[in-house]
Amino acid sequence: LIFLDSDDVFSPSLLQKLYSTAVKTASDATICEYESFIDGTDTFKLNASFRAFPKIFQPQDMSIDLLMALDSVAWNKLFKKELFIKHDINFQNCRHSNDVYGVYSALLNSETISLVSRPLVRYRTGRNKSTQGKKSKDPSGILIPFRQLVQDFADRLDFAKIIYGSFLMHFRSNFNNMDSVFASGKLWDAFRDDQLLFDWMQRHRLKIRLWEDALFFCVCKMSFSDFSKKMQGKITFFRLILPKRFKKFALLFSAVLYYSINFK
To answer: 121-130, 165-174, 235-244: lowest mean pLDDT where?
Structure first.
């Protein structure tokens, strides 16, 4: 099975290379690199290189860096059909992030995963009507797939680090890319109020990347309004000194600063 979006661009050899690799390595999932480009342009950027990672591995051996490189998108991944049938894997019917649960569930249920170190997909960005544009209208949508992953894999402690790390990466990415402080605050507080997910994250807490760890630390300590009041001067300062394209990270920089000062 492969799931291709109609607005992206695919190499004519995509299916052949993924399928031949899957057969050769007896893999349940085979993944290729991809490039991104802004709609209306012809400048392509490699999303992440696979060259530093093993070409064949088991899901429990995934590092945070590899997880980031793989991404949660469906269109650069070929799966064995039996994998979806055996584990009753489906894509969720939610406003955005609807591929996260299906992709991660398939990867975590795989016995073997293989990589193709060639960008065979070109992902189109910059379209206002894309799924990405819906995130600010439903800030807490990213919680839905991870709540289900926690329920499905609660007994698999070897997957705790993968789920923990991937959630914080998605949480930080969504938090950064909201189009308003109001939307970021709704996501922050929705996570605090999600008892199942929040409690699970607290129990399995790890120190990973500074940005994710700092944001989670602040969420654990206070509500978004309390954080905003406490750090208002610092947030304003970061918005003044950061270049235009980085101003949206003022809240995240403030979380890192608070974490650095208060973490024991």
So the answer is: 121-130
Q: Pairing state of beta strands 113-125 and 56-57?
A: antiparallel
**Residue 110: closest CA among 162, 65, 147:** 162
Residue 129 and residue 251: Cα distance in Å, rounded? 26
CA pair distance 55, 71, nearest whole angstrom: 16
SS3 55: coil
Contacts of 196 (CB under 8 A, 6+ apart): 147, 150, 151
How many alpha carbons lie under 13 Å from residue 103 in its C-beta half-sphere? 19
Let me know the angle formed at the C-alpha of 133 by 255 and 216, rounded to the nearest 5 degrees: 20
Q: What is the pLDDT of residue 18?
A: 98
Question: What's the pLDDT band for 118 if we cut at 50, 70, 90?
Answer: very high
Lookup result for tokens 């797939």: 145
Give me 116's structure tokens: 């193709």
